[in-house]
Amino acid sequence: MSDATIPHAPPLSTRKGFPLSAYLICAGGIIWREALRFLHQRQRFVSAMVRPLLWLFIFAAGFRQVLGVSIIPPYETYVLYEVYIAPGLVGMILLFNGMQSSLSMVYDRETGTMKTLLVSPLPRWFLLVSKLFAGVAVGILQVYVFFAIAWFWEVQPDWIGYLYALPAIMLAGLMLGALGMLLSSLIQQLENFAGVMNFVIFPMYFASSALYPLWRVRESSPLLYQICVFNPFTHAVELIRFALYQQFNLDAFVIVVGCTAVFLGGAIIAYDPARGLISRKRQ
Amino acid sequence: MPDGSITATTNPRDASIKALSVEGVSHAYGQRKALNDVSFHVPQGSFTALLGPNGAGKSTLFSLITRLFNVRHGTIRILGHDLTREPGEALRRLGVVFQARTLDLDLSISQNLVYHAALHGISRKPAKARIAEILASSELSNRLREKARNLSGGQLRSIEIVRAFMHRPRLILLDEPTVGLDIRSRAAILSEVRRLVREEGVSVLWATHLIDEIGDSDRVVVLHHGQVLAEGFVPEIVATEGAKTIGDAFTRLTGIRTRPPGPQEAAA
């Protein structure tokens, strides 16, 4: 090497396995890298904010009269439509963020940086979970910036609600991130990612309780209602909605936890060289 | 290890343990066999060249050794650790330079190296100390804060090699590391890697299709159409094939004529 002379002392430790600190350092490194990438991509942050805020400022204002919301749990009184769709928009942020993380994994695979992650000696499942948490951490940051802006738009739950909502937001982020991770294992090229927009993001978002209460959906289309109930995104939104008003929605919690386990399990299997799809594809 | 860093546990002086042992490994993409019953080993402290033309199966073999692909047929051991049964113990002893660039171009050089260290359980402080140690005499030490995308191809490759050494591995795999570099950079990288083998006892598996990267005293594994055609030190292979040079021996084994790289090829 023209530039570096590499000193190389042989390691002498006789310890086998990995100390807990190694896991923590590794997870911290993965989260740190994701945060750095996010900060370097300011456009990504701006677009992540603009999307839900457009819905809040324009769509919600326009449809306030048309889509009046009756008193349904967790609300104890009539609420503005802006207030109703705020949890759905939080879900939208997490959904897009999860898919963005998936896109970034496909990009990493194409550019080769994914190989650096996958040849780490720590267990592959741990690397993927760390990657997932890194994506969720970025998503949570976006959600609370959104809450801060929405507060000026009359979306003002009790301040303790923001605290209650944090675990729900994290869980919903994990579910959607795990789904994105699973999808990234199935997508071979970056160009194919547009399909995710058409076949995953839009159907999940629109066929849910994010924009309209389910009772209204059932009135107009029982079939669509069933689809909405089947859609895990509906339950992620409801989990957040209830938590924001300091209530716990057990059904939503169980479904979101279950879906997270299934999606994450699928992603770990897909990225496992022993069982997954990766090694069957020509790199 | 108070800093949480991971270090290898095999006594590097136990020479009976091979740095890398590949036994009966086969791999196929669908119906197409990329590797067919491949067996060879890399002794500790040796520079072993994996010589083969493009498409010979070198990169597939590297994907198996780095566990990007699963070993479905055969066994791979790194410093005695079975890659399938003890992947963590095996991979912690391994440093890799992939053929394609794998640095994150949006991060700085320092951030790339610290990130790699973290993936091996090495915290920021010892990682930065290691970076300073490795790059002490390098002009790149003044460019640590620059984004990787500002570096030339040769400099990127140098950083990737530095990165492969960050966690003090005992075996280094380099998959055609000089591809795309000019003659001066190629010679410098080769020379530095050979120095490490000579002075530090690191084991190296150097994949290449360029005959002129092979020294007279190197071990060579000739891979062609997914099969090992010859394995041994250069003089042994040359004698066995009744050839004058390793280039001639390679031609006799594979039927492919060799020539030294022209200026354009070397610069490509």
Distance between the termini of chain B: 44 Å
Q: Could you please say which CATH topology of the largest domain in chain B applies here? A: Rossmann fold
* CATH-assigned homologous superfamily of the largest domain in chain B: P-loop containing nucleotide triphosphate hydrolases
Q: Estimate percent helicity of chain B.
A: 25-40%
Rg value of chain B: 18 Å
What oligomeric arrangement do these chains adopt?
Answer: heterodimer
| Apparent shape of chain B | globular
Termini separation of chain A (Å)?
29 Å
The profile of the biggest β sheet of chain A is: none
Number of helices, where a helix is a run of at least 4 consecutive DSSP H or I residues of chain B: 9
Family (chain A): Belongs to the ABC-2 integral membrane protein family.
GO molecular function, one term (chain A): ABC-type transporter activity
Domain ABC transmembrane type-2 (chain A): 43-274
Subcellular location (chain A): Cell inner membrane; Membrane
Describe, in short, the structure shown.
The complex is a heterodimer of chains A (283) and B (268). By secondary structure, chain A is mainly alpha-helical. Helix content of chain A is 71%, strand content 0%.
Provide key terms for this protein.
heterodimer; A: 283 residues; mainly alpha; disordered C terminus; B: 268 residues; alpha/beta; Rossmann fold; 9 helices; disordered N terminus
